[in-house]
Amino acid sequence: MISESFGRTIQLFLVDGTPNGLRKATIHGWTGLIFVATGTTFAALTARPELDRTGIYILSGPDTEAVGGTRTYIGSANSVRERIKQSAQQRDFWETAIAVTTSDDDLSKGHVEYLEARLIELALAANRVTLDNGTTPAGGRRRLPEADQANMEQFLANLKIILPVVGLDLLKPQPRAVAQASTPVEQRTAHETTFEIRHKSGVSAEAVEEDGEFVVLEGSQARRESGSAMLSYSGLKENLIKQGVLVPEQGDFFRFAKPYSFNSPSAAAAVVLDRNSNGRTEWKVKGERRTYHDWQQARIAANGVGI
């Protein structure tokens, strides 16, 4: 049986030759074009002739209402240049602007309205960003012939691959341990190694690693106040309290009311212990003395990869 997984070649072009300048990205063999700009390179973005085409665009930046969160706006237009300018002027949160067109200008108004609606739908389902879109496009905007829908779904499949490469994870599905929270935790984590923190303060937490994300499971505890003046993740912890992920518990602890995905074991350990922490040594394989670092090195050795 042939595996459906295969490599992809992503071409990343630095337009002005500098890493912080305007970037152009595409996938080999695909007509889609992705341009990535910041505030300082926005003028260079809108000057590109490719933006005078039908396409979609994304504005993304920090969410001032959710510490550590991201706010995103998704739009479509017959001329991306004009609409992205208007949208950028109306929103002050964005730090990254992404324009999506094609090299052969073969997207119609119906195509990009379908893509816009689907991107919003997928972003809502992933629940990784706060959408700045006031309304969700009506289902009628997604009416396309069957063949066109199939083509646009393939277009979306390529966007799912290339957007994380240029720094945007809004479409990435949540890990199974988070997305299937209504399923018993034993079933969700049956094939994963469970890690734990058992601290002398009495705090107790469990987590699993899935697809490069470190998920602290519901029922885990986090210290309220450790007395540490050094906590790089204090903003994230405040946001988790605001979101209801962390809820007060008797004693000096918070409790994870739902599973939460962190970008590293250290971020998870810092929130649990309320101090800057090296998660690679704080987290241990459940019921063992092996640290996360020991476990990871053993996996590397087992796969025959040199250290």
Task: Kindly summarize this structure in a few lines.
β4 and β5 (70-77) form a beta hairpin.
Can you walk me through this structure?
This protein has 307 residues and is of the alpha+beta class. The chain folds into 2 domains: 10-165, no CATH class; 176-302, no CATH class. Helices cover 31% and strands 24% of the residues. It has 10 helices and 15 strands. It has helices at residues 42-46, 80-90, 109-126, 146-165, 176-179, 185-188, 234-243, 265-273, 279-282, 292-302; strands at residues 10-14, 23-27, 32-38, 55-62, 70-77, 96-102, 130-131, 194-198, 204-210, 213-216, 221-223, 246-248, 253-256, 260-262, 284-285. Strands 1-2-3-6-4-5-7 form a 7-stranded mixed beta sheet, with helices on both faces. Strands 14-10-9-8-15 form a 5-stranded antiparallel beta sheet. Strand 8 (194-198) and strand 9 form a beta hairpin. Helix 3 packs across helix 4. The longest helix is centred in the middle third of the chain and has 20 residues, at 146-165. The protein is elongated, with a radius of gyration of 22 Å. The two termini are 32 Å apart. The relative contact order is 0.10.
Give the SSE map:
Blueprint: E1 10-14, E2 23-27, E3 32-38, H1 42-46, E4 55-62, E5 70-77, H2 80-90, E6 96-102, H3 109-126, E7 130-131, H4 146-165, H5 176-179, H6 185-188, E8 194-198, E9 204-210, E10 213-216, E11 221-223, H7 234-243, E12 246-248, E13 253-256, E14 260-262, H8 265-273, H9 279-282, E15 284-285, H10 292-302
Parallel strand pairs: 5-7
Antiparallel strand pairs: 1-2, 2-3, 3-6, 4-5, 4-6, 8-9, 8-15, 9-10, 10-14, 11-13, 12-13
Helix pairs in contact: 3-4
